[in-house]
From TrEMBL:
Pfam family, one: FKBP_C
Ranges of residues in domain PPIase FKBP-type: 211-300, 457-548
Source organism: Kocuria subflava
Keyword Isomerase set for record: yes
Catalytic activity: [protein]-peptidylproline (omega=180) = [protein]-peptidylproline (omega=0)
Domain of life according to the entry: Bacteria
Annotated keywords: Isomerase, Rotamase, Signal
Protein name from the UniProt record: peptidylprolyl isomerase
Length: 569
């Protein structure tokens, strides 16, 4: 399986970190095949390669347009280890290529590369090597340098031609500066509810197809304040973006549009990155409804990535508890394994149901044959951006088999607390509060189970619903999400740890929590910046499904819901 090559920034700008060969070794570099479009060039050379200064060698001149200063190129790359000639990475299988701008910046940083390129034509292939990569194998005494091979796949137009038409009704005016870079006029009014994609300049190239890689210049601004959050013109080079990896507004807005066009897009938040509430204040992504002007310079087919390696599993410890069956719900802990050592364990609830079987059949198969107490390391591979493939190992430990609900008839709600009833499915419902909350913490059984008592600092598996005393609004519910959750009591608000400690597993408990043992008052929450947390006095109904000792240095998970105001502190 080929290893994908991660390239960042201007395509060959990373070459300073990735190159190699000695005069003899590098001079021996030759093509051993005549690759056609999309094929990886294969080379031979004498090893080891060790260079003392940057070197280039043209392996194929090319038969396309001459490359000149100012050319914008789409390039692919493959890197070979200078010590033994082994391929260590390539970009062909991970994308349509990266953008390389042949300009004064490249001439200043990598003059040898600039000079070689400007003597070539599109379709050409060159080898490059630099002493900056000496010793990157990590082996003692190895001073070999890498051999990088670049193929110039295509020349990209630097701008589109034509006169701009007016923006569609309801969208801001777009003008051009002296360099023909588009600029938004005043952005006022509300964004359209639906996606808008229209030509400002209609080109005459082929229509962009689903799944292709679009080579574009673009500028993006927020509807809310008109702020420009991204611009390839400011970055100095176009971008090559696979539409399958873009936000929905881009893939939908550019598919079917002609190469050589300038397009204006109005993208609602649900087809962009999301709202501020969904992403948080510090997400780093532009939130809300967005505007883009996009120049479509080219569109090329995106290669199909090679399949990921199959996952593997290794049993670390064979448990001696109850056997797990299909359909069971488990309280497990998960820990990332690095260099054979597990990190902090995070608790979670996993149901061995059809959903897990469909989404992650390998993990499902490992857990359904386990016993309580079993630990198994599962290693999986994933795509880590720009085609790079990374491996990660997670240690799953089965702590308990837990029920999905508690059994028994509910007792009347304690005096002073709102009535709690049950749905037909057995989920609790809290009536609208009609009086003030108690001053102190209240924790009482609605159903008293017969399991062991929850101990200080344990990890609990629960279902729960939470409402605000002020208005009865449900702010969080694991019942609505359809799955229990788990977390250490050392990592939750005081009202939860105090309210659950000493209660029996298998119980349903109602807990009234004053603000000073919850998240605080509205003023305190605003000062803390935790704007998603519910303010004031709170009321919870909690089903205690299981409890187990918390592993040393366990991390509280972002439960009960990653984006919800859970009992986690």
């Amino acid at each position: 399986m080929r290893k994908a090559l991660l390239r960042t920034g201007t395509a060959i700008g990373a070459a300073l970190l990735l190159t190699a060969c000695s005069p003899g070794g590098f001079n021996s570099v030759e093509l051993s095949n005549d690759p056609s479009a999309g094929d990886v060039p294969e080379i031979t050379f004498e090893t080891p390669v060790e260079v003392e200064e940057n070197q280039t060698k043209v392996l194929r001149e090319g038969d396309g347009a001459e490359i000149q200063d100012g050319s914008v190129l789409l390039a692919q790359a493959v890197i070979y280890r200078g010590s033994d000639g082994e391929e260590v990475g390539e970009s062909y299988s991970s994308g349509a290529g990266q953008i390389l701008k042949v300009d004064s910046d490249l001439k200043e940083r990598l003059p040898e590369l600039y000079d070689a390129l400007t003597q070539m034509k599109v379709g050409g292939i060159l080898a490059y090597s630099s002493p900056a990569t000496a010793g990157q194998s990590g082996q003692e005494g190895d001073n070999s340098t890498s051999v990088e091979v670049y193929e110039i796949v295509q020349e990209i137009p630097t701008q589109i031609e034509g006169e701009m038409s007016d923006s569609p009704d309801g969208l801001p005016e777009v003008t051009e500066n002296d360099d023909r870079v588009p600029e938004f006029g005043e952005i006022d009014g509300d964004a359209p509810d639906e996606m808008v994609s229209d030509y400002l300049i209609e080109g005459d190239g082929d229509a962009v197809e689903a799944g292709q890689t679009a080579v574009v210049n673009y500028v993006g601004a927020r509807w809310e304040d008109g702020e420009t959050f991204d611009s390839s013109w400011e970055a100095g080079a176009p971008a090559a973006l696979p539409l399958d990896n873009a936000i929905a507004g881009w893939s939908e807005g550019l598919e079917g549009k002609k190469v050589g066009s300038r397009v204006i897009l109005s993208v609602p938040a649900d087809k962009a990155y999301g709202t501020t509430e969904e992403l948080g204040e510090d997400s780093g992504y532009p939130t809300g409804d967005l505007l883009f002007v996009v120049d479509i310079l080219a569109a090329v087919d995106t290669p199909e990535p090679e399949p990921l390696p199959d996952p593997t599993a290794s049993v670390v410890n064979e448990g001696d508890g109850d056997e797990v069956d299909e359909g069971d719900t488990l309280l497990v802990t998960r820990a990332t394994v690095t260099n054979g050592e597990p990190g902090d364990a995070t608790p979670s609830v996993m149901s061995l149901d059809e959903t897990l079987k469909d989404e992650d059949s390998f993990t499902y198969d490992q857990l359904k044959d386990a016993k309580v107490g079993t630990s198994v390391d599962i290693t999986t591979s994933s795509r880590a951006g720009a085609g790079q493939i990374s491996e990660s190992t997670t240690r799953y430990t089965v702590r308990e088999i837990i029920p999905t609900e508690v059994d028994g008839l509910m007792e009347p709600t304690p005096e002073g607390l709102p009535m709690v009833t049950q749905t037909d499915g057995g989920d609790p419902e809290i009536a609208q509060p009609e009086r003030d909350a108690p001053d102190d913490l209240v924790s009482e059984y609605l159903i008293e189970g017969d399991g062991p008592e929850v101990e200080d600092g344990q990890t609990v598996a629960v279902n729960y619903v939470g409402v605000r005393w002020e208005d009865g609004e449900v702010f969080d519910s694991s019942y609505e999400r359809g799955t229990p959750t788990a977390f250490p009591l050392d990592g939750v608000i005081d009202g939860w740890s105090e309210g659950l400690e000493g209660k029996n597993v298998g119980s349903r408990v109602i807990i009234s929590i004053p603000a000073d043992k919850a998240y605080g008052t509205q003023e305190e929450i605003e000062e803390s910046g935790n704007t998603t947390a519910p303010a004031g006095d709170l009321l919870f109904v909690v089903d205690i499904l299981g409890a187990t000792d918390t592993p040393a240095a366990a991390s509280a998970s972002p439960s009960p819901a990653a984006a919800s105001p859970s009992p986690s502190e």
